[in-house]
Amino acid sequence: CQEPSLYTVKAVLIMDNDGERLYAKYYDDTYPTVKEQKAFEKNIFNKTHRTDSEIALLEGLTVVYKSNIDLYFYVIGSSHENELMLMSVLNCLFDSLSQMLRVILESDPQQVVHRVALRSAKEQIKWSLLR
């Protein structure tokens, strides 16, 4: 049995509904080349895109995943990693991106302008406090 590590997450992936990489960040050298990474990503997508579960064991790794209409989010850890910790990372990533992209889904122009203006004002306040 391997000791737990601070390096909980081995990789974070976001793929489209065809299994193509939109974002991939590998935190160790389990898959050192892009060719190996893409093969792993294809394998993950093929094993998970038709299932409703949220956890898979694949190639000696623990994979937690979530989909949203046409995007698939994956967080990968070692086989001895705590699934709840990995799921926590996945949920944070998923929820953060959902909140950041929500303004794009707004169809009322007044709401979009209001949100952008509010965000701009917050940025100005933040930068003035940092000076």
From TrEMBL:
<dbReference type="InterPro" id="IPR039652">
    <property type="entry name" value="Coatomer_zeta"/>
</dbReference>
<dbReference type="GO" id="GO:0030126">
    <property type="term" value="C:COPI vesicle coat"/>
</dbReference>
<keyword id="KW-0968">Cytoplasmic vesicle</keyword>
<dbReference type="InterPro" id="IPR011012">
    <property type="entry name" value="Longin-like_dom_sf"/>
</dbReference>
<keyword id="KW-0931">ER-Golgi transport</keyword>
<dbReference type="GO" id="GO:0006891">
    <property type="term" value="P:intra-Golgi vesicle-mediated transport"/>
</dbReference>
<dbReference type="InterPro" id="IPR000804">
    <property type="entry name" value="Clathrin_sm-chain_CS"/>
</dbReference>
<comment type="subunit">
    <text>Oligomeric complex that consists of at least the alpha, beta, beta', gamma, delta, epsilon and zeta subunits.</text>
</comment>
<feature type="domain" description="AP complex mu/sigma subunit">
    <location>
        <begin position="8"/>
        <end position="107"/>
    </location>
</feature>
<comment type="function">
    <text>The coatomer is a cytosolic protein complex that binds to dilysine motifs and reversibly associates with Golgi non-clathrin-coated vesicles, which further mediate biosynthetic protein transport from the ER, via the Golgi up to the trans Golgi network. Coatomer complex is required for budding from Golgi membranes, and is essential for the retrograde Golgi-to-ER transport of dilysine-tagged proteins. The zeta subunit may be involved in regulating the coat assembly and, hence, the rate of biosynthetic protein transport due to its association-dissociation properties with the coatomer complex.</text>
</comment>
<dbReference type="GO" id="GO:0006886">
    <property type="term" value="P:intracellular protein transport"/>
</dbReference>
<keyword id="KW-0472">Membrane</keyword>
<keyword id="KW-0653">Protein transport</keyword>
<dbReference type="InterPro" id="IPR022775">
    <property type="entry name" value="AP_mu_sigma_su"/>
</dbReference>
<dbReference type="GO" id="GO:0006890">
    <property type="term" value="P:retrograde vesicle-mediated transport, Golgi to endoplasmic reticulum"/>
</dbReference>
<keyword id="KW-0963">Cytoplasm</keyword>
<dbReference type="Pfam" id="PF01217">
    <property type="entry name" value="Clat_adaptor_s"/>
</dbReference>
<comment type="similarity">
    <text>Belongs to the adaptor complexes small subunit family.</text>
</comment>
<dbReference type="GO" id="GO:0000139">
    <property type="term" value="C:Golgi membrane"/>
</dbReference>
<protein>
    <recommendedName>
        <fullName>Coatomer subunit zeta</fullName>
    </recommendedName>
</protein>
<keyword id="KW-0813">Transport</keyword>
<keyword id="KW-0333">Golgi apparatus</keyword>
